[in-house]
Specification:
By secondary structure, the protein is an all-alpha fold. It folds into two domains: 108 residues, no CATH class; 144 residues, no CATH class. 62% of the residues lie in helices and 0% in strands. The protein has 14 helices and no strands. The chain is globular, with a radius of gyration of 18 Å. The mean pLDDT is 95. This is Squalene/phytoene synthase family protein.
Length: 253
């Protein structure tokens, strides 16, 4: 097994994180690629069956394999787990929490309010960004800053996905998307104010994606409803955002 399967999965299914990986030091890229490929797999697991119990069984398989890796047991040959083990070893056990956070997706229940969405984002996007940032040299004192950045970026990505989430029963049952967007903007601003806590080596891990602030601002001002409308990101805008990150290591806006 090689990194090829992981790289192709992240390139095609998570282009923003893939672009950020290319900004990281080459020695760190395999670890990021395998982490993000794992994230795709555990995010997809709850949707591989319409039956909640079967969906949870699929997710449980990943949880058990990660827990075994944390105990020092090499995983079975697998396109994602094998290169993940090669890059992370027993530290892959730390990713159990990322998988556990996806259990609620198996039930296909909408979020009751904005605070429920934030809790989910903190556990999923927040946990993922911290794992990546720590691998790239972020110290413990930067954890709060990373958490704020992840909250802002995670809410934005969740709002972008709302048109697909609503039909699956995973959208917003109550609460106001505009309030969520404002919370995200506040989190991004707070993270930017403490950007010096994060070393430049970790910039790739904290990259939020292109045109996050304009998108959130439009929602906060109620100029668009993310449940029905989206702002398209052009290839030029995505490339320009990657170029700025590569030239400046500036992950904050």
């Amino acid at each position: 097994m090689t990194l090829d399967a992981c790289t192709e999965a992240v390139r095609t299914q998570d282009p923003d994180r893939f672009g950020a990986v290319l900004v990281a030091d080459p020695v760190d890229r395999p670890a990021l690629i395998t982490l993000y490929a794992l994230n795709l797999e555990i995010a997809r697991a709850p949707f591989q069956s319409n039956e909640p119990m079967l969906a949870e069984m699929r997710l449980q398989w990943w949880i058990e394999r990660l827990a075994e890796m944390g105990q020092g047991r090499e995983p079975p040959l697998h396109d994602v787990l094998t290169p993940l083990w090669d890059c992370w070893g027993r530290d892959a056990g730390d990713f159990v929490d990322l998988a556990e956070a996806r259990r609620r997706d198996c039930a296909r229940e909408p979020f009751a309010d904005g605070s429920a969405v934030i809790g989910y984002i903190d556990a999923t996007a927040g946990g993922l960004m911290w794992c990546a940032a720590r691998r790239l040299g972020a110290p413990d004192r930067a954890r709060d800053t990373v958490a704020l950045q992840a909250r802002g970026a995670g809410i934005a990505n969740w709002l972008r996905a709302l048109p697909q989430l609503q039909p699956l029963g995973l959208g917003l049952a109550g609460g106001d998307p505009a309030q969520l967007a404002q919370i995200a903007l506040t989190a991004l601003t707070s993270a930017a104010a403490h950007h010096s806590d994060v070393p430049k080596t970790a910039a790739a891990a904290l990259y939020p994606g292109p045109r996050i602030r304009p998108f959130l601002t439009q929602i906060a001002r109620k100029k668009i409803d993310p449940r029905q409308q989206q702002q398209e990101i052009t290839p030029f805008q995505r490339r320009a955002s990657f170029a700025l990150l590569a030239m400046t290591n500036r992950w904050w806006r």
